[in-house]
Specification:
- By secondary structure, this protein is of the alpha/beta class.
- The protein is built from 19 helices and 21 strands.
- Helices cover about 25% and strands about 15% of the residues.
- Helix 11 links the parallel strand 6 and strand 7.
- The chain is globular and about 115 Å long.
- The C terminus is likely disordered.
Length: about 675
């Protein structure tokens, strides 16, 4: 038995069965005494691998033999133990130089690492690499450059950069979500579908205690306009006259403000104040009887570029505006008047009144084109319905293509049949035949018409106003109609000389606010008989509903360049008016107005099944059924209905039926 516990008995090895050459070859006896020889049968020509070979990235898998070798290592790298045998058994002999580097190979879980450059000793002249005993593998100058990078610092920086990017992306997503619109309604130009508010400045608010309203009073009421939710304030005549405001129609200049109202600078400040609240300012421009005829255009439109970029100010516009350094004489052309007010005050449009007297003027089309060019696409040109009706057929298209709004007066005194006829004529007439045609501007009151409450209950004004706010186009509220303001009260006949102006009574304000003028002053007209301030909430509610509902503020449905109506008007002889409004993929609305003196019960099941009240009644959000829909006299209710789908699909027109009319009247 040798030290490996392997038997050397020839009988066990079966030597008699082996060739003689193998049994007689040198074996144990030929080794030196201090050397251990392997008794394993090795091929004569197979060299033994060196003990110091190891893959630099392979860990040592330690065992008992490794420990024996590690324990037997002594001395430095130049010392080695040698064993030899005869030439016939050269494959058995091994040379095993073992140093500190080799010892690491045999250690348990020992890995080889790349070292820093500073730890490496340059190679000697013989090409051998010398290094410290603690080094595993030397890093030479031939190594790639990235080996010498500061990888711990790089990992830290990469982590924090990645974390910062994640935080930034989360912040961007949150900001995008927070800025998303609450609704996805189709957009509309500022004057399309919004509500205008017409004001007679002398009767709105007095600030200098002279009994007459002024421009500064309008500035002080800017928050009131914002509360209403209107889109524009339209000022009636503010120009100097022989005796303003009693004879405000007798204008003496179109390029100044009457001294009773203030100065041009006040109008500029008013426009800026309103613009801060996203409200526009429009001026009435009464050219008749101030002008007797239209003058030739001042610019050649054929040589100027199209005003389609939304920029009002062009080089040609500025050149022409510089020439107006002083106020021109009364005979100045309308174009000069527009330039003056645009450059001095920044107003957003004009209602040119009295154009019907120039319908046959040969220079009309050229003048209208020039006016619209000066205004640009973002400012409006407004005309009256009478002017459109008197236009020759040859000029209708050319004129209407330059006009943005057409004012249509809605005479409630004609009853529901008259209202329905006016609305149908406006929708199906000249005004909505093309995409480029103007929108309708509805008016229930004006400086030339009496108040709706004249001879009627104040509820008549509220019912008519709520009905108007659901019509297609751009509705207008005459100042005071939102609170059912009545005409000036003169029971003793002390103001007969101003009786034609009594519908322009001073505005009434809530007791918590400043009144029209101070207590020590009297308004220029007798005070109004009464005003229903609680009606204001209903009007504000209806305006807010209009602003958020495309079915109401959209004039029509535009599909493939065609204007498809989104309004249906129904009426009968019993002063009942039903208006249906709809828009694709939006809520539809039904406005039921009773403009008669009796309470009625309607059977509307031919059109609707049920619905929810959304405006016009104290029973807001109440569920209603249309088999017996009851409505009070002089009342308008806006409902979000559930349509009769069969009739809607077949476009069936059914008139509302009146049930128990006399019975309700008796009650």
């Amino acid at each position: 038995m040798n030290h490996l516990q392997i038997s050397t008995d020839p009988t066990l090895l079966g030597a008699d069965l082996l060739p003689e050459s193998l049994t007689t070859s040198p074996s144990v006896s030929t080794f030196l005494p201090e050397e251990d020889a392997s008794t394993c049968l090795l091929l004569p020509e197979t060299p033994s691998p060196p003990l110091d070979f190891s893959h630099p990235l392979t860990p040592s898998m330690g065992n008992a033999t490794d420990n024996h070798v590690r324990d037997s290592v002594t001395g430095d790298d130049d010392q080695a133990a040698e064993t030899s045998s005869s030439s016939g058994s050269s494959g058995i002999g091994m040379v095993a130089p073992v140093g500190a580097g080799a010892a690491n190979l045999f250690s348990h879980n020992s890995y080889q690492h790349l070292r820093k450059k500073s730890d490496v000793v340059k190679a000697g002249q013989d090409g051998s690499m010398h290094h410290a005993a603690s080094l595993g593998i030397a890093v030479t100058k031939d190594m790639p450059g990235f080996v010498h990078w500061n990888w711990p610092l790089i990992r830290k920086c990469t982590f924090f950069v990645f974390l910062a990017l994640i935080v930034a992306m989360v912040g961007i997503v949150v900001a995008m979500i927070a800025t998303l619109p609450k609704s996805c309604n189709p957009p509309a130009t500022w004057y399309k579908g919004s509500v205008f508010y017409e004001v007679f400045p002398a009767s709105f608010q007095d600030t200098n205690d002279d009994g007459l309203g002024d421009i500064r009073g309008l500035i002080g009421r800017a928050e009131y306009f914002k509360t209403l939710g209107i889109g524009a304030v339209r000022l009636n005549s503010i120009f100097p006259s022989k005796h303003y405001p009693d004879h405000f129609q007798e204008v003496t200049s179109l390029l100044d403000v009457d001294e009773v109202l203030g100065k041009v600078e006040d109008v500029q400040k008013l426009a800026a104040t309103l613009h801060e609240r996203n409200i526009s300012l429009v001026l009435d421009l009464p050219i008749h009887p101030f002008l007797e005829h239209l003058s030739p255009p001042t610019i050649d439109l054929d040589r100027l570029p199209n005003r389609t970029d939304g920029d009002m100010i062009t080089s040609e516009f500025l050149r022409l505006s510089r020439s107006i350094t002083t106020k021109p004489e009364s005979g100045t052309v309308v174009s000069d008047v527009l330039r003056f007010w645009l450059t001095r005050t920044g107003v957003d449009g004009f209602y040119v009144k009295g154009l019907e007297h120039f319908a046959d003027d040969p220079l009309l089309v050229e003048n209208v084109k020039e006016w619209k060019y000066l205004l640009g696409p973002d400012r409006i040109l407004m005309v009256g319905q009478k002017f459109v009706e008197q236009l020759p057929e040859r000029t209708v298209r050319d004129v209407l293509s330059q006009v943005d709004l057409v004012d249509v007066y809605l005479d409630v005194s004609n009853g529901t049949d008259g209202i329905a006829s006016t609305v149908q004529d406006a929708i199906q007439g000249r005004l909505l035949r093309g995409v480029d045609h103007p929108w309708i501007h509805w008016s229930l009151g004006s400086v030339s018409e009496r108040r709706l409450t004249s001879g009627l209950s104040p509820n008549a004004t509220l019912a008519a106003t709520l009905m108007e706010l659901t019509l297609p186009g751009t509705p207008s509220i005459f100042y005071g109609d939102e609170i059912s303001l009545e005409e000036a009260n003169d029971p003793k006949g002390e103001h007969v000389d101003t009786q034609h102006l009594h519908h322009l009574a001073a505005m009434v304000w809530d007791s918590a606010q400043n009144q029209f003028t101070s207590r020590g002053s009297l308004p220029w007209l007798p005070r109004s008989a009464s005003a229903s301030l609680h009606h204001l909430d209903y009007v504000i509610e209806a305006i807010a509903l209009r602003k958020r509902s495309p079915s109401i503020y959209q004039n029509a449905v535009v599909k493939e360049g065609q204007m498809l109506p989104n309004t249906d008007i129904k009426s009968n002889q019993n002063e009942i008016l039903v208006i249906q409004r709809w828009y694709p993929r939006r809520n539809s609305f039904a406005t039921v107005a009773n403009l008669g003196p009796k309470r009625v019960s309607l059977d509307l099941t031919a059109m609707f099944y049920s619905g929810e009240i959304v405006a016009g009644s104290s029973l807001k959000h109440e569920r209603v059924y249309f088999d017996r829909f009851e409505i009070n006299p002089l009342e308008t209710i806006v409902i979000n209905p559930m349509l009769n789908h069969y009739l809607a699909l077949n476009n069936t027109r059914i008139e509302p039926a009146i049930v128990r009319n006399e019975e309700m009247a008796n009650k």
